[in-house]
Amino acid sequence: QVQLVESGGGLVQAGDSLRLSCAASGRTFSNLPMGWFRQSPGKEREFVAGTSWSGGRTYSAYYAAFVKGRFTIFRDSAKNTLYLRMNSLSPEDSAVYYCAAGSSSGPGTTRVGDMDYWGKGTLVTVSS
User: Fold this and answer.
1) CA separation (Å) from 28 to 3, 66, 114?
2) Can you tell me the distance from the alpha carbon of 39 to that of 41, in angstroms, rounded to the nearest whole number?
């Protein structure tokens, strides 16, 4: 059974940093596109950051425009774990953050509908 389990969320102040983790199990994820999405109350789920396999041990990373260099996505394939390092957090970043993965190797995607596996989310709250 495929599972994605997020952790690392919490309550922080504006300007602080957090590192989210996503432990994947049930299959190998090293060649699958993976990403982080977020959802705030009353808003649609949106893309935050993604990573896709480029061959060998190389991965590409891509980000939503609002990230503006503050976030870094990376993975540890040996641990089947995906991370999102978030710096300079602002109250606008408050949301439930979800880890997601596609089910087949391919180019990265920013679309919610292209992801096949989802975690239950971890809440990030940034106070002003």
Assistant:
1) 11, 30, 18
2) 7
Q: Could you report the per-residue pLDDT of 71-122, keeping only the tens digit for each?
A: 999 999 889 999 999 999 999 999 999 999 999 888 889 999 999 999 999 9
Q: How many CB atoms lie within 10 A of CB 110?
A: 16
Look at residues 124, 83, 104, 113 and name the one whose alpha carbon lies nearest to residue 31: 104
Is residue 33 a contact partner of residue 53, using CB atoms and an 8 Å limit?
A: yes
Q: CA–CA distance from 57 to each of 4, 31, 52, 54 (Å)?
A: 22, 9, 11, 8
What DSSP assignment string belongs to 89-127?
Answer: --GGG-EEEEEEE-SS-------GGG--EE---EEEEEE
Count other Cβ atoms within 10 Å, centred on residue 20: 23
Q: Is 45 helix (H, G, I), strand (E, B) or coil?
A: coil
